[in-house]
Amino acid sequence: MLKFDKEKTLENVKGALALRPEINAVVDEINTNGYSNVMWLGIGGTYASAMQVVVHMKERSAIETFYENAAEYLTTGNRRVTDKTLVVLSSVSGSTEEIVEAVEKIKKEVGATILGFIDNDQAPLASMVTHLISYPTDEQLKFFMVADRLMYLAGEFPDYDEFYKEMDEHFANDIVNVEESADAFGLQFAEKHHEDDIHYFVGAGNQWGATYSYAMCYWEEQHWLKTKSIEAPEFFHGMFEIVERDTPVTVYVGEDSQRSLSERVANFLPQICGNYTVIDSKEYDLPGISEKYRGTLSPFIFHAINNRIDAHIEHINRHPMDIRRYYRQLQY
Amino acid sequence: MLKFDKEKTLENVKGALALRPEINAVVDEINTNGYSNVMWLGIGGTYASAMQVVVHMKERSAIETFYENAAEYLTTGNRRVTDKTLVVLSSVSGSTEEIVEAVEKIKKEVGATILGFIDNDQAPLASMVTHLISYPTDEQLKFFMVADRLMYLAGEFPDYDEFYKEMDEHFANDIVNVEESADAFGLQFAEKHHEDDIHYFVGAGNQWGATYSYAMCYWEEQHWLKTKSIEAPEFFHGMFEIVERDTPVTVYVGEDSQRSLSERVANFLPQICGNYTVIDSKEYDLPGISEKYRGTLSPFIFHAINNRIDAHIEHINRHPMDIRRYYRQLQY
């Protein structure tokens, strides 16, 4: 299977899940000291992950939590952020300019507690955060583990132990098997859409952030294919007027609280479009995981499927995904 | 001048500004009774206006305020919304399904105070809100007047009276003159871009919501032209990789706190693109308005300019902007 190392992927996910005691030690301490709200700070792909975890929390929690774009924080600021705020961020390189500057500003002006998932623990950013956890891959899972612990401690996630028992026992194997089983679909999808003039991606709920970033950080940035992403309920408030018979539209239908919003798009599309794809997380098994937790895990299913699409588009287009024409190539 | 009734526009803006005593009576009462946070509820165009007012408030305020998509509120809910919340919304028709249902849910489950700007005061929605203000046009101005009064009462806008003295004396005339003076530009822009395969719009700060809705609710919904809108800082985190010599890109450069983010895009574009347009609010006079207030008013300048673009695209394309192929035409 193209660009797929089953053992390595399995090891990555298991390693991320094994971070939980380390994450909990930090979160429990923060909770004991008290905090007023939680800001998820990001830009580009990490901004998108921040959007996802905020929706995830909103499903259960009364904790004040919001996402913030690092560049916007640097200019407009956010007066809800104080020394009682918990800031959570993630950075692979530890060198993203806006994130580094935002952390400097938070430390200098506010003194909030900062939990940073920074893969490169040699980056200066790694020594700037209050609490550092350094482990490559699985950003969304790390964010969800922080959110879940916060909600557990707030009494909003009574079945936390039950959920993570299932996760520890089954999730890594399940999600790797999803990726494997999605390969034929990924090839078929790539063959059909690798030359699209523009591709529309529709998502909702905890998949909206991932829909936004898959379109932008993968198709635009890495495949150099034009896209537009749209939140499912917004599709009906303007965007759909440009959809015609041959317009390529993909809808992610997850199993979280906003499933009905994506289903509405999926159910409507056949009336006006002959080139649509519905990707429904329900079609993929997660043995050992209870039905009630599948909504939380839908984005991971979609991520595994998208990986297969990417591998095949990359090969068909002979366009290595590592090439950038502008990003970190030019001055801006 | 095409599709421009100067006297009528002037009268509309003056009428909106004259709502201030009515708005303040409501807001002052809510403030006296106490509120914990402010939710701006919308969908489509009104969702975009909600985004704008939240950025406007973040520039000055420590009040907890956020925007919420009505469809997402109906599914995921928002536990920050309680009987101490002030909900603000706007609806022209009063019949937007998601807004009506969200108001029903808020009344039934939460009992928050709801201030509704509902143009059609005969719509059932008009009798469902706690406080009704009914006046056509100028939604953004109405939202800003609510926000400004809240911030004034919280001690965050000490020069409120000074600002509104200038607004009452000069804004209506100024903004109508901006629209008139932008007509030649609007024609030239429309002639160049009325057949674009796709047009990219970049915005930031209090113009981001308007950038999103101008692209979606005008070009897509009313002109049936493809667009993508992007927040200025996000442009550099993926999207820009698909920009080439002939890609049409328009950047709104306003004078609010995030001006530098849009400027960065405007300054970079000439390196990679030969088909870009920078629309800078600074190029338009607002006589009688102090420099320090121009940031707040930038979105109104852009709105006036966009009106001219629309009038000319509509005529050149012979595509009346009132036509919808799907919206409220089909079942979905």
Automatic annotation (TrEMBL), chains A, B:
Keywords: Carbohydrate metabolism, Hydrolase, Isomerase. Its EC number is 3.5.-.-. Catalyzes the conversion of a range of fructosamine 6-phosphates to glucose 6-phosphate and a free amino acid. The keyword Isomerase applies. Homooctamer. Residues 26-157 form the SIS domain. This is Fructosamine deglycase. InterPro entries: FrlB_SIS (IPR035488), Fructosamine_deglycase_FrlB (IPR024713), SIS_dom (IPR001347), SIS_dom_sf (IPR046348). One of its GO terms (molecular function) is glutamine-fructose-6-phosphate transaminase (isomerizing) activity. Pfam families: SIS. GO terms for biological process: fructose 6-phosphate metabolic process; protein N-linked glycosylation; UDP-N-acetylglucosamine metabolic process. It comes from Schleiferilactobacillus perolens DSM 12744.
